[in-house]
Amino acid sequence: MRGLVADHALAVVIVTHDLAVARLLSHRLLVMRHGRVIETGLTDQVLDDPRQPYTQLLVSADLRG
Amino acid sequence: MVATDTAMVQVTGVAKTFVMHLRGGATLPVLRGVSFEVHAGECVVLDGPSGVGKSCLLKMIFGNYRIDAGSILVREGRQWTDVARASPRDVLRLRQSVIGYVSQFLRTIPRVGALDVVTHSARDNGLEAATARARAADLLARLAIPERLWQLPPATFSGGEQQRINIARGFVATHPVLLLDEPTASLDQTNRAAVIEFIRLRKRAGTALIGIFHDEDVKRQVADRSIDVSRFRA
Q: To 10 degrees, what angle do helices B159-172 and B189-204 make?
C-alpha cells in the first residue's frame, strides 16, 4: 500500500486500532475519542511521545510498543 | 540568529518534561537549557551516563519527540527550519532530504527483503533506482552481510545483522545531517572499523554528525568534540 501511495500519488485514510499498522503505513495520525479528534501529528511523534491521557493509555496498551 | 555559515544544526534553550497521565499526571523533567551548534564536516558526540537524555535529545532533533521550550534549527540549503515548530509534512520532508537517523533498533515493513529496505532509503533520499540499488548492495557487502541474506526480510536476522542493516539504511542516503544512536553497540571489531570509516567519509563529504557512542575507542576515532548532556539535566 505504501508503494501504491508513492507510485500513484494516492491520498489514503486508514481507520485502525492496530498501532503497528498505523506506524508502518501512515505519515500522519489522528487519535479520536467519543467522536472527536483529541491528538494529531506526525505518526511516530504521537505514538512515541503521546500527550493526551487517552493517547498515553492507548499506546501503553499496545504489546509491541 | 544564525551564527556562522557552516552551522547545520542549532539547538537553543531546549527543555523537555514528560507528563505521565497514567501515573496521576506525574512529571518527569529530563532536559533544560540545551544549547549547542553542529557544523558541516564535524562529528559531535553526546556524552553522559545512561538515562541522562542523550537518545531523547537525538529524537527531539529528528522530530520524533516534541519539546516544551526552545528551538531546533536545521539548515535546509539557504533556509532554516525549526523542527520543533514544523508541520508534520515539513518534518517528513526534512527527514527525506536533510536529517538521517540510525536508531538503536531496526523497524521495517514485514516481508520486505534487506536489500530492498536499504534501497528504499536511498530512493527516499532522491537517488535514482539503479544507483540506489548499487549503493545499497555495496554497503551491505562492506558490512559483511552475506549475499544469501539480501532477499530475506531482516526481522529474522540476528541482533548484529539487524543493526548492520540499520546502519546501511542510514549511510546509503546522503543527508547533510546524520544522527547516530549507538550504531556500533552490537558489532564485532571488523564491522566497527567499517562504521568508523563510513563516519570519516561522511565528515569529509561535509555531513554534520551527532552521535552517541559508548565504545571509548570508537568515540576517540570519530569525535571532533563531545557535549556532556548531564549539564543539561533538568
A: 10
